Amino acid sequence: MPPVQELGFEVRDGALVVRVDLARLDAVAAPAFRDALLPAAAGRRKVVLDLDRVRFLDSSGVAALVSTLKKLEPGGQVRLVGAHDEVRQVLKLTRLEKVFPVDQSIEDALRA
Q1: How far apart are CA 103 and CA 112, in angstroms?
Q2: In whole angstroms, how far apart are CA 23 and each of 16, 28, 48, 68, 71?
Q3: Domain assignments of the chain as residue spans, ordered by start
Q4: What is the CB neighbour count within 10 angstroms for residue 86?
Q5: pTM, rounded to two decimals
Q6: Edge-first strand listing for the sheet containing 102-103
């Protein structure tokens, strides 16, 4: 289980920006990721996840993203930044690439 310090939280322009310092968001890491993220994300309008270090995403990681989206206020968004091809491929295969938009930068995600 990853320690909470592998997530960096910051509020910018009313959005929660989360730096994810994990190489894998999988069945091992996803439960602690979800447990640390959900309380911080609850009721927010926008969460931006910086996934630059994440190289692997499995169904448990996808479930953690979906759980986060469900905790936001109605119409809220989870936007991804720095998603590598491997992560994007999983989102495409699960048909979630439109549910979790990928932006080029944190600034772009905050403006969207």
Answers
A1: 9
A2: 21, 12, 18, 19, 24
A3: 4-111
A4: 11
A5: 0.92
A6: 7-12, 15-20, 46-50, 77-81, 102-103
Q: Where are the beta strands (DSSP E) in the chain?
A: 7-12, 15-20, 24-25, 46-50, 56-57, 77-81, 102-103
Question: Count of residues for the chain?
Answer: 112
Given the structure tokens 């999988």, which residue do they identify?
Answer: 26
What are the pLDDT tens digits along the chain (112 aa)? 444 568 999 999 999 999 999 999 999 999 999 999 999 999 999 999 999 999 999 999 999 999 999 999 999 999 999 999 999 999 999 999 999 999 999 999 999 9
Tokens 């930068």 correspond to: 105
- Evaluate whether 106 touches 81 at the Cβ level (below 8 Å): yes
Q: Does domain 4-111 have CATH number 3.30.750.24?
A: yes
Question: CA 13 to CA 65: how far, in whole Å?
Answer: 21
Query: How many CB atoms sit inside 10 A of residue 76's CB?
Result: 17
